[in-house]
Amino acid sequence: MVKNPGREPTAQEIAETAESMKVAHKFGPSYHRNKTELHTTPACKSKQCKDCSDISCPNFSSHQECPPKCRRGCKNQLSRTKPELVPFFIADTGDRGKGLFAKTDIPADTRILYYSGEIISQRASKIRWNKYDDKEREQSYYFAAGDFICDPRNHGNAGQYANNSCQPNMVAVQCKIHGKAENYRGIFFDAYRDIEKGEELTIKYDFDYDSSVVRECKCGELNCTKSLNMLPPQPKKRSSKSRSGASEKKKSKKS
Ligand SMILES: [Zn+2]
Ligand SMILES: [Zn+2]
Ligand SMILES: [Zn+2]
Questions:
Q1: Among 47, 54, 63, 106, which is 20 to 30 Å from 125 by CA?
Q2: CB-based neighbours (< 5 A) of ligand 2, an ion
Q3: 3-state secondary structure of 190
Q4: Is residue 16 predicted with pLDDT exceeding 90?
């Protein structure tokens, strides 16, 4: 993890970050063919809840994004939040391509970003995968999104620049999104602990193990496994095509 205490983003980094956060999901034909009924989140009426941004909110704590018309000041609306309000910026890490860095101090459990991509069915993702050559597989970063797969390849926002770490400071949370299918989940990256301004924001991707695809981790933490893949399965389990569930995806390389 890179630490740049107090580091302020340049105007160019701010602009690039805001631009990348304008990228919206693309819900492809296979999403529409496989979606179940649409999810409705009730507006929050809890007396304990202040702004729907922590577990005192029944919607937040049950992993549902609030509807557009929730209580005044509702902050559980990240998939609809203005791109320029994000608490991070994209910058060069030096040895690992681009990365994300905290623009301010970020308290634990803060919802940091909505991970964007093309939402496709698992079947469509397998067909796509089978057509890729080794290089394309190496650069392909699927992320499970409920019954679907989020493929950031052509529709990814800044989330795709979050680097892998074996000691990450963010965690991926899957949430139901008001107005989207019940069997779809939006992927949010939340702060796993208090994060200081200038720290690099990292996540643990844990791809399903696939020995044919090399994804090296260069996080530099003491416990680094040197790989973005999960540990190999026990001998004999699991067929050679692997990677089917695509539990999580990715990391950089798009510098
Ligand atoms: Zn609430
Ligand atoms: Zn709310
Ligand atoms: Zn590592």
A1: 63
A2: 44, 52, 66, 70, 74, 76
A3: strand
A4: yes
CA distance 95 to 51: 39
How much distance in Å is there from the Cα of 170 to the middle of ligand 2?
A: 22
pLDDT value for 76: 92
pLDDT in tens, 187-198: 999 999 999 999
In the chain the domains, ranked by start, together with CATH numbers, are 11-203 (2.170.270.10)
Q: Which residues contact 243 (CB under 8 A, 6 or more apart)?
A: 129, 207, 208, 209, 210, 213
The reported pLDDT for the residue numbered 253 is: 40
Distance 167 CA to ligand 3 centre (A): 7
Grade residue 247 by pLDDT with cuts at 50, 70 and 90: very low
CA angle at 94 for the pair 154 and 23, rounded to the nearest 5°: 20
